[in-house]
Every structure is written in structure tokens, then in C-alpha cells.
């Protein structure tokens, strides 16, 4: 029989098979060769059964809706359980422990991501895996790792890293799936996102992720992606994201995740001090209020010494409903350090050492504005990954968001304006320059710290900065945990597809930008008086005086200019 006849015969057989494929409704059951698994009595073990496959591994997932869970869940006796059973041996099943303290994105807003069918199926598979492993992260919280800038490779000044975060968002992970599926010992339950800065001319194709586990074992994989943060390219060392896969070690009863990571372009044994700690969701002091907000100012630098401004900044935002403050300390006075430490001791602030000036010269030709893009993105992931904040406000120490009319708190404002398809809320900027005469007409008689920007400076520019130029000029924003991938200084740069920013009308809320000096090109001839912030005056003065009285002996928070009054 020649080749053409063979091909025609095969085509006919395939055609006949396709004709009958829709009528096949049965399957073979091997009654001679089988695996037997038995579960606890009266647990309804076997109520549901599914085959789970992950790379080269397969096991059977078995549901037991009446299993006794009293030893795992306090106060719950028959909460039901899911078991992972060996596919090749009898009676080898292990209960899968679900850690309720670990956050994974199950917000129910997946529809706005606009994934295609294949990506949706991949996300469902990843979600099953994410739920079916026991993440051994409790011991990570005991590391007390302090982030600081480090060279990626000891013999090279090309690259520096500061922090690394476990990103559990599956809609972010799915874009790397084609790379993940070709790797061994990889869990498609998220990614490791590293924040750093590097010479943007540096070749990055040969970067590797080096991981260390609690037992000292090292694993090495290739980097999934290296991407530059969006910022003015007037420095040789812009901020970068480096994305690594999630590697693991498997034991008889759990899957362990790595504790430390570094980036290198060659294989060699590294010392522990070369690595940085990986930040996972915290199991202690974790925010559980879905509507709470954290705030991320830029780095405090140039020996920042205005302690009173910090006290006013924190207290006005506490009144407005902010729950957590992140202070990045590059260069501050002793007085500001005392204020920072006071709020940290109160449990509402975290102080991060921003030692980038120890590894790079602070010059705009080298790095843009003290590495602010890396600061803000580190803060966003710290607030959302570790502390579980759904909303993060990006605003500097001299910028105050002011909800107008009916909403006195930002939490109430967000509840009224936010929608599931928004990745951020954008606010217009109005300059309030301290060069204009101050108005002290409403100072309480018993006030000790008399000069508060929000109460004394009432002359503002009549028009927002967006009225003259592009509407996003000098704006500030509230970013949402589930959707934002990269934040900027004035708006979100990258978010998940299908989401959008919402521009808040200036009649509803604005940013008051309390600058100490005029800015060329941002001072129009029209000014107006605005006393709307004075509704917080009595409460604000009381809180500021209380804090300053606790921190400083005479009750005065020092300012950079004590002769203002």
C-alpha cells in the first residue's frame, strides 16, 4: 500500500471517529486494579472527588463535609474538610489546612479583569492550587527582617534591591503562566515581586532568582520579567520591578515557601547577608477592615526638621479616617525622629530606613528624586500584601485630601464614590502657598502649637493645576489593592485590564497642597480664600497639642522656622 492510500485511510478513520464522538457517554472502570482510600467515620468522606494535577504531580482531592475539625478550628466541631490523597498508594490521605489568616484575592470582582477563556480556566486552576496547599508562613513573621538597599551583585554597581513581596493576585500571575509551566518546583499561586533600582543600560536577560529556605537549602530559577518603573528618565538608575516565580520545598505534610531571595547573573554560593527577606501576608496585627485606608508619603529627606508639620499631617488624616502611616526615613532631624517613633509606638505608623543614599549618589543625573517611585511602590505593596489594606492613599506631607459637603471622612467618601471597576480615585490639586499672609483669627486661646498649615493658610489658588495643563498635573490618588500593579507619584501607571481611574469632581473633594514657597509656573493671578478646613480646627489643635506635649517637654513641636509667629 503506497503512502497516499495510507493517508486517505487515516483521514477516513478520523472522520468516522469525529461523527460518533458526541454519542460517547461512558468510560471504563478498572475493577481489578484500583487504589482504596478510607476517611474518618461519619465524615461523609468521598462526598466529592476530583483529580488534581500540577506539573508532574497528581493527587486526588476528596471532600468530607462532616469531618471533625475541632483540633484545627477553635469552637468548630464538624466544619468539614478536604483531603489530598495519593494517586498510587492505598490509604495515604492528608487533610489540607486552610489558613484563615492568609489573604488571597477572592473579592468577587474577577469579571472586571476581562480575561479570555483560557486565562479564566488557568485562574480557576491556580485558585484551586492556592487553596490546596498549606502555606508555611507563620515562622516568617519572626524574622524581623529590616529592609535596606543592597547591591544585587557584590562586584558590580549596576543593580540594587530593597524589598521583595509575595503577590497572591492570580490575575497578575496568569500572564506568566507560559513561563511557569516550563519550570520545575514552581507553584502557580502567585509571584515574588522585587523592588529595586538599576542602570537601565544593564543587560537583564541572564538574571536569576536565588532562594533560601528555612533549612538553608538554595534553589535557583530564571527571572520571569524585569520592567522599569514609569518615571522621568533623567537618571541612570530608575526604579525597577523584578518578577520571580514562587518556588517550594515539599515534605510529607506541608509545602514550604522560601524565606530569602537575591538576584544574580551567575551561579555561586552566596552568604545570607547578600539576600533580602521575602514579605508574606502578616499573621499578626493584620488589618481586617475592608474600608480602612493606609497612606504613603514620599521619603523624608534633606534633614527634614518640621516636627509640627508631621504631627499636623498625622492628626488631620486620623480625623479623616486614615488607619496606618508609612514613614520612609532618609534624612531627618532628631525632633522628627521623635515624632516618627511616637506614632510607631502607638501602633499606627511604621518607620522604614530609606538608605538609598548609601549606595547611590543623590543626583538627578543618577536617580530621580531620592528614588521616590521605588518608595511609593514599596509602600503600596507593603500596605496591601503585608497589612491587607484595600485602599492606599498616595500623598506627601504637605498634601491634604479634603472631602467637601456631606462626607467628613475619607472612608465614607470612598463608600459613596468607589465602584468595582475603579482601580483608583483621582483628586485635583490646589496650591496653598505659605508665602501668602497667615490668618490666625481662629486660634483657640489655650492652643500651644499655634501655626497649623490647614488652619492658618486660607489663601489658595482659584484654579487647580489641572485647569491650565494636562488634567493629571499634580493630582493625587487613592489606589486599590486588587487592581493596581504600579503606582506613580500623581496617578496609577499600570492596573489590570478592564479597570479604570475615576476623576473626582472638584466640587466633591480636592487636594490642598500646602507649599512653603511659590512654584514658578504654578501661581496664577487669581486667588481666593477658603476656610473649609477650619471645621476640623478645634479637634485638630487639641490632638496636635496632646501629641506634642507627650513628645517634647515644653509641649511645642519644633518647626524649621520658629519665628513664623
UniProtKB/TrEMBL annotation:
Keyword annotations: Glycosyltransferase, Membrane, Signal, Transferase, Transmembrane, Transmembrane helix
Main location: membrane
Keyword Protease: no
Protein origin, superkingdom: Eukaryota
Classification via InterPro entries: Glyco_transf_92, Int_alpha_beta-p, Integrin_alpha_N
A Pfam entry, by short name: Glyco_transf_92
Residues in FG-GAP repeats: 31-94
Enzyme kind, highest EC tier: transferase
UniProt-recorded name of the protein: Glycosyltransferase family 92 protein
Source organism of the structure: Polypedilum vanderplanki (Sleeping chironomid midge)
Amino acid at each position: 500500500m503506497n503512502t497516499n492510500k495510507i493517508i486517505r485511510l487515516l483521514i477516513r478513520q478520523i472522520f468516522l471517529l469525529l461523527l460518533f464522538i458526541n454519542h460517547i457517554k461512558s468510560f471504563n472502570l478498572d475493577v481489578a486494579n484500583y487504589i482504596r482510600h478510607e476517611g474518618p467515620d461519619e465524615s461523609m468522606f468521598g462526598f466529592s472527588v476530583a483529580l488534581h494535577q500540577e506539573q508532574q504531580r497528581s493527587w486526588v482531592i476528596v471532600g468530607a463535609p462532616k469531618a471533625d475539625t475541632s483540633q484545627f478550628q477553635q469552637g468548630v466541631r464538624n466544619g468539614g474538610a478536604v483531603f489530598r490523597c495519593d494517586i498510587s498508594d492505598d490509604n495515604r490521605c492528608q487533610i489540607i489546612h486552610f489558613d484563615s489568616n492568609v489573604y488571597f484575592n477572592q473579592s468577587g470582582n474577577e469579571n472586571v479583569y476581562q480575561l479570555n477563556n483560557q486565562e479564566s480556566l488557568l485562574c480557576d486552576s491556580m485558585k484551586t492550587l492556592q487553596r490546596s496547599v498549606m502555606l508555611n508562613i507563620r515562622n516568617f513573621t519572626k524574622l524581623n527582617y529590616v529592609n535596606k538597599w543592597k547591591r544585587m551583585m557584590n562586584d558590580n554597581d549596576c543593580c540594587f534591591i530593597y524589598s521583595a513581596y509575595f503577590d497572591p493576585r492570580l490575575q497578575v500571575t496568569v500572564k506568566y503562566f507560559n513561563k511557569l509551566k516550563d519550570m520545575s518546583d514552581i507553584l502557580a499561586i502567585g509571584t515574588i515581586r522585587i523592588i529595586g533600582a538599576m542602570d537601565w543600560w544593564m543587560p537583564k536577560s541572564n538574571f536569576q532568582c536565588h532562594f533560601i529556605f528555612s533549612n538553608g537549602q538554595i534553589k535557583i530559577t530564571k527571572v520571569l520579567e524585569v520592567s522599569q518603573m514609569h518615571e522621568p528618565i533623567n537618571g541612570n538608575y530608575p526604579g525597577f520591578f523584578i518578577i520571580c516565580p514562587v518556588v517550594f520545598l515539599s515534605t510529607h505534610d506541608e509545602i514550604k515557601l522560601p524565606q530569602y531571595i537575591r538576584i544574580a547573573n551567575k551561579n555561586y554560593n552566596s552568604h545570607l547577608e547578600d539576600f533580602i527577606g521575602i514579605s508574606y501576608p502578616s499573621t499578626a496585627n493584620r488589618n481586617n477592615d475592608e474600608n480602612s485606608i493606609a497612606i504613603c508619603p514620599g521619603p523624608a529627606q534633606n534633614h527634614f526638621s518640621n516636627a509640627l508639620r508631621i504631627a499636623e499631617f498625622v492628626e488631620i488624616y486620623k480625623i479623616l479616617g486614615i488607619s496606618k502611616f508609612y514613614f520612609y526615613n532618609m534624612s531627618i532631624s532628631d525632633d522628627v525622629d521623635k515624632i516618627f517613633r511616637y506614632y510607631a509606638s502607638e501602633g499606627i505608623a511604621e518607620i522604614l530606613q530609606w538608605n538609598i543614599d548609601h549606595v547611590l549618589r543623590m543626583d538627578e543625573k543618577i536617580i530621580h528624586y531620592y528614588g521616590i517611585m521605588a518608595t511609593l511602590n514599596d509602600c503600596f505593596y507593603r500596605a496591601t500584601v503585608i497589612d491587607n489594606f484595600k485602599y492606599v492613599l498616595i500623598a506627601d506631607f504637605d498634601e491634604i485630601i479634603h472631602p467637601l459637603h456631606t462626607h467628613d471622612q475619607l472612608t465614607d467618601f470612598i463608600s459613596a464614590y468607589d465602584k468595582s471597576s475603579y482601580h483608583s480615585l483621582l483628586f485635583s490639586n490646589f496650591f496653598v502657598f505659605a508665602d501668602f499672609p497667615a490668618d490666625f483669627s481662629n486660634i483657640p486661646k489655650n492652643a500651644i502649637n499655634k501655626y497649623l498649615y490647614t488652619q492658618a493658610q486660607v489663601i489658595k489658588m482659584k484654579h487647580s493645576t489641572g485647569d491650565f495643563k494636562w488634567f493629571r498635573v499634580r493630582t493625587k490618588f487613592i489606589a486599590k489593592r486588587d487592581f493596581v500593579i504600579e503606582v506613580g507619584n500623581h496617578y496609577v501607571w499600570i492596573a489590570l485590564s478592564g479597570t479604570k481611574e475615576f476623576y473626582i469632581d472638584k466640587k466633591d473633594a480636592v487636594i490642598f497642597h500646602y507649599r512653603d514657597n511659590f512654584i514658578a509656573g504654578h501661581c496664577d493671578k487669581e486667588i481666593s480664600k477658603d476656610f473649609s478646613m477650619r471645621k476640623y480646627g478645634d479637634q485638630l489643635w487639641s490632638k496636635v497639642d496632646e501629641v506634642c506635649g507627650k513628645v517634647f517637654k515644653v509641649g511645642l513641636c519644633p518647626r524649621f522656622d520658629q519665628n513664623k509667629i
